[in-house]
Structures are given as structure tokens and as C-alpha cells.
Amino acid sequence: MITAVELGLIYAIMALGVYLTFRILDFPDLTVDGSFTTGAAVASVGIVNGMNPWLATVLAFFAGMVAGVITGLLHTKGKIDGLLAGILTMIALYSVNLRIMGKANTPLLGEDTLISPMRASGILGSWASVSILFAVCLVFVAAIVWFLHTELGMAMRATGDNQEMIRSFGVSTDNQKILGLALSNGLVALSGAVIAQYQGFADISMGVGLILVGLASVILGQAIFGQRFIWVATLAVVLGAVLYRLIIFFALRGGLDPNDMKLVTALLVVAALLLPRWGFLRKVPKLGRRGGSVVFENGTAAAGQAAPDPALAAAVAATASDASPNGPSER
Question: 2-278: which CATH architecture?
């Protein structure tokens, strides 16, 4: 079970990337299946050729960003539908990944990797390693939450919510989409690089169907833990990735055929999408905002709470001020 939790925490980085495109940008990006393998291929080849594993992992992140930029350019500049742009990049990356590795599989047995210190000290497969990986995930969660509350991040959120509105304030939605896709696929490739080092090899087919795993983590986590606040929604993605891996673990322990795992994943996504609509989990207390007070779904208010978060409105106003020909006005 501990191994399943470890894998869930590593795949959570990939799920955070999917969250950026699926929830923040409202963009159906299928590049994930290819960029995940790209990250694993770049890191594995670099490590095999004597590169420092930290440097190899960073290069994997930037390789994933390049893949995301290509999808973004195809969509924004080439005017290709977002879904089709992702598919085209994903297909092209299959050949690119084979070129990078030179073969279908690159083993890392006996090589120094990011996981080697934990394996050598004997803490891999224990709650100590789980604590380390969870701390790393919290760093990524904090970084994403911070970014999404910056002016640039709130412009990206506004792009996903209402492109026409934010474009009227002088924001380039094309640039926001390219940046979001780059960051998303960078995180996906980073996760692929770490997974390759964890399991000891990179394989050309390791990213097949991964977008479904990412969507399952995002939808399952947010359906259970909520998404009313950015930090809750982001942390829910991490917990959803772990929960997904635990479900798969117990399904296999229960005697389920491994060939049915994709079917199980699809059913999990369907369940996570449909159950909230049917009233499931509605009795769980969730906080919302109404008229400057925090209220529960049953309508009762909690007095003395903070006013609604004006972050997005402030970002739009700041962006409009910066976009004016004379710069920000002084009063």
C-alpha cells in the first residue's frame, strides 16, 4: 500500500499539470500522453550518459514546456482546434521520444537517480519516503497557489473563465494559453522523469492513456474535497491522485484483472462526474460566500468572516491600467 501512496504522490505532480489546463484554462490538452514520456526519455538518456540526475530532471521539465508551447502555437497561431492540436503534438512526440531514447526502452538499473539516496538508506517503501514526497508535493501546491494569485496567474484564470472579458482589458489570451500549456506539460514531463527514476526505466508506451489518469485524479479529488478555494482545489488534486492509486491497489488486491485497469479508471471518472449531480456528498458541509459572509450550503451564515476575495477583480483592474497607452493613472 505504501508503494501505491508513493506512486500517487509522484503522479500528483502530473495531475497538477492537468489541473492547470483542464480547470484553470478550460483547455482539453491531450499533449500529456506524449510529454510525460518525453520527460522520462530526456531524464533517462541524460542520466545514462553521466548527467547529474537533478540537471537531467530539470531538462525534462523544460522539454515538456517546449511540447506545451508547440501545442499552444498550433492552437493560437495556427487556429487549429485545441483538442486536435494536442493530438497532433502527442502523435509527433511518439517519434521524437523514440529518437531521444534510440530504442523503445531505456533501463536505469545501477545508475544514480533522485530516488537512489532513499533506496540506499532503506527508507523507500516506508512512511518516511511518503512524508518526503508529500512535502515535495506541498511545495508544488504552494507554488501553484502563489502563481495563481499573482497578476499573471489571475489573468490566466480569467482567460479560462471569460476570454472576451479579459481580452477587452488588453490581455493577450493567446499568450496566456501558451504559458499555461507550457507550465502544464512541464509539470507532466517532470512527473514522467521522476517516475522513470522510481521504477528504473523509461518506456515508449508509459504515457499511453495518462490523460485519463490525470483527469481521474483532478475530478475525483475535487468531487470529494471540493474546489471552492484555489488552495483547496489544488490540494484536492494531490489527494485525488493518491486516492486513485489506492483504489487501483485495492482493486488489484481484490483479484481484478490488470487488463481492466483502464476500464476502472474510466468508471471512476464517470462516477466522480455523476455522483455530485445526483446529490451524493451534498450533505457534506462546504463553505461558500454570500454578501460578505461565509455561509454553509444549508443557508446558515457565520458572522464576522472576511469579505469575498477581490483578487480576480483587482487583477483585471491592474491589467487594464497597465494596458492603457499612458500606463497606470495616478490620482
Answer: Orthogonal Bundle (1.10)
Ranges for all domains in the chain classified under CATH 1.10.3470: 2-278
Tens of pLDDT along 214-261? 888 888 888 888 788 888 889 999 998 998 888 888 888 887 777 777
Spatial strand order in the sheet of 301-302 = 287-290, 293-296, 301-302
Residue in the structure block whose three cell numbers are 521524437: 96
**Model pTM above 0.90:** no
